[in-house]
Amino acid sequence: MKLRDVKNLSNEQLLRVAFCVGQEINRRWKGEKGEAPKQFHDCKDVFSYFHYRLWAKQQEYLCCLILNHKNQLLDERVISMGTVNASLIHAREVFAPAIEKRASGILLVHNHPSGNATPSPEDLEVTKRLKKVGKLVGITLLDHLIIGKYQYYSDSLKTVVHV
């Protein structure tokens, strides 16, 4: 469908198209019944899953992917919404949903509104602290990704990857 075709639709037709598009987006994000749960094999999978949702945000969002022992998605939570350059992260808020879901591991993802995915000293410190807490509660912090514009930082790789 081209833009000129959309302009010729009535309001009712446009709403019907928007509803169908919304259903398809929801199906892709959440998966359909009978469909295998979303599985993450590496940090590139996580980047692909989040990039289009986070890189253009004007404030920091911290999201947690809650995974089973096969790294399949059990749940996804927004843990914190911060300011343009900071986000409050507390271990209690990160691990509570994972404990509730009986998770084996988690992946943390947050964005840098500046577009630069280079971690701050605070990012590195909080990741180190959350890894320790994860060991204590038996839920592994598999990675902490920082999403920028056309780049991401992976704590497991210890580098910024340009895409």
Q: How would you describe this structure to a colleague?
A:
There is one protein chain. It contains 5 helices and 6 strands; from the N terminus they run αααββαβαβββ. The protein is an alpha+beta fold and 163 residues long. The protein has 2 domains: 35 residues, no CATH class; 125 residues, Cytidine Deaminase, domain 2, CATH 3.40.140. It has a 6-stranded mixed β-sheet with strand order 2-1-3-4-5-6, with helices on both faces. Strand 3, helix 5 and strand 4 form a beta-alpha-beta unit. Helix 4 packs parallel to helix 5. The radius of gyration is 18 Å and the shape is globular. The protein starts with a helix and ends with a strand. The model has no long low-confidence stretch (mean pLDDT 88).
Task: Describe the SSE topology.
Blueprint: H1 3-7, H2 11-30, H3 43-54, E1 61-67, E2 73-81, H4 91-100, E3 105-111, H5 121-137, E4 140-148, E5 151-154, E6 159-162
Parallel strand pairs: 3-4
Antiparallel strand pairs: 1-2, 1-3, 4-5, 5-6
